[in-house]
């Protein structure tokens, strides 16, 4: 009973407090009360879930809107107006009790076109789409492999093509020098054997030849006695650049039969690095060949055959001025040309996909492929046998003994001018 009585007292006290608060508020006639945390201002506003209030502070009930009217409004909101007429706007100015009405002002509406249709012939669109269908996305299957970084592959090879253009090898750069083409070929042929004895990476051999050509092109006073020193030092630098464990400098002294000592090799190393401005990032033909093998879906036989062609080109001076990307494309084309398979029989060798990714057409590749064919046909009678003996081993699929190298197709390719 005591609790009930206490509750009743508190309720009465609350009611009195509410009455006292209401009595202290002075309401001016014609003004509306502002709700707590509501919109600041004396304008009539509609709160969420409440009906609007008029000037006298009375609630104005909304008229129920029929479902048909809602449907009509939604229909007009989604449909476009058919006839667009000028809208008349009346501007009113209040002055005490009088109202001035200005003459109507025409407001012109600007019609906006939502769709822009390009006037392109249908035949051009069809031709463009058909060309796209013939180019295959070769990196689609490897997008889930983070090691292959397929998202950057095209940008990487675009950059490599810029680098090879930045560091070109000029045609006939040995003209007027004491070192001639025959001396260069003898040096490279010997370095191929040294490369095998040291069991170095493939990239080391290609980079060695690139360093030699760039140095001989820049320093035209290189003598015959120092040519072997240039070759050994170039392989020493390339080993440092490419190998995990580069051979010691004493190994290079031994391989020259003590013709040069450590001091001479180190002095030549400093001279060559300064001459080449410490830049050894010129791309190799082997880099591009791996990309082309993937694009053309080459078999191991095709890839190894193309590598044999590239190493033969390293030895011969007349092939050194071609860009690495172009000579790799020619080697890949020739490998596809002479080694056929049942799946590739009757198909185009240099497809649109190869032309797209390599940036070379068949007309660009074919002349260099003919020059390579001439070298391969005459390889058996050449004085430089290091590369040919290297590819006799089963490790390289005995490529240099393949009958396709002496086939009528190969002979015909070599005779074409």
Automatic annotation (TrEMBL):
One of its GO terms (molecular function) is cyclin-dependent protein serine/threonine kinase regulator activity. Residues 283-405 form the Cyclin C-terminal domain. Keywords: Cell cycle, Cell division, Cyclin. Residues 189-274, 287-374 form the Cyclin-like domain. CDD domains: CYCLIN_CCNB1-like_rpt1, CYCLIN_CCNB1-like_rpt2. GO terms for biological process: cell division; mitotic cell cycle phase transition. PANTHER family: CYCLINS. Belongs to the cyclin family. Cyclin AB subfamily. This is G2/mitotic-specific cyclin-B.
């Amino acid at each position: 009973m005591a609790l009930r009585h206490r509750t009743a007292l508190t309720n009465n006290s609350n009611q009195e407090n509410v009455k006292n608060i209401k009595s202290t508020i002075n309401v001016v006639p014609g003004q509306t009360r502002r709700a707590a945390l509501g919109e600041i201002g004396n304008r009539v506003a509609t709160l969420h879930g409440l009906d609007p209030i008029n000037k006298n502070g009375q609630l104005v009930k909304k008229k129920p809107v029929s479902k048909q009217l809602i449907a009509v409004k939604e229909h007009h909101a989604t449909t476009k107006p058919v006839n667009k007429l000028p809208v008349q706007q009346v501007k009113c100015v209040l002055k005490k009790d009088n109202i001035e009405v200005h003459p109507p002002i025409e407001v012109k509406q600007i019609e906006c076109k939502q769709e822009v249709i390009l006037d392109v012939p249908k035949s051009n669109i069809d031709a463009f789409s058909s060309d796209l269908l013939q180019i295959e996305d070769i990196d689609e299957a490897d997008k889930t492999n983070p090691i292959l970084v397929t998202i950057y592959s095209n940008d990487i090879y675009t950059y490599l093509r810029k680098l090879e253009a930045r560091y070109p090898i000029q045609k006939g750069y040995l003209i007027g020098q004491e070192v001639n083409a025959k001396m260069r070929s003898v040096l490279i042929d010997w370095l191929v054997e040294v490369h095998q004895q040291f069991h170095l990476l493939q990239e080391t051999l290609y980079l060695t030849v690139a360093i030699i050509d760039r140095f001989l092109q820049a320093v035209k006073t290189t003598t015959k006695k120092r040519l072997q020193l240039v070759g050994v030092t170039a392989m020493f630098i390339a080993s440092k650049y490419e190998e995990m464990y580069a051979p010691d400098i004493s190994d290079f002294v031994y391989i020259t039969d003590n013709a040069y000592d450590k001091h001479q090799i180190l002095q030549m190393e400093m001279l060559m690095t300064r001459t080449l401005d410490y830049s050894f990032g010129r791309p190799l033909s082997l880099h591009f060949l791996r990309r082309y093998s993937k694009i053309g879906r080459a078999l191991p036989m095709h890839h190894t055959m193309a590598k044999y062609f590239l190493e033969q080109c390293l030895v011969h001076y007349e092939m050194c001025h071609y860009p690495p990307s172009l000579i790799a494309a020619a080697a890949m084309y020739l490998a596809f040309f002479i080694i056929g398979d049942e799946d590739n029989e009757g198909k185009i060798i240099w497809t649109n996909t190869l032309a797209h990714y390599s940036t070379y057409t068949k007309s660009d590749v074919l002349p260099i492929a003919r020059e390579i064919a001439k070298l391969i046909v005459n390889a058996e009678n050449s004085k430089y046998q290091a590369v040919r003996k290297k590819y006799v081993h089963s490790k390289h699929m005995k490529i240099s003994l393949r009958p396709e190298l002496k086939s009528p197709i190969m002979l015909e390719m070599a005779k074409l001018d």
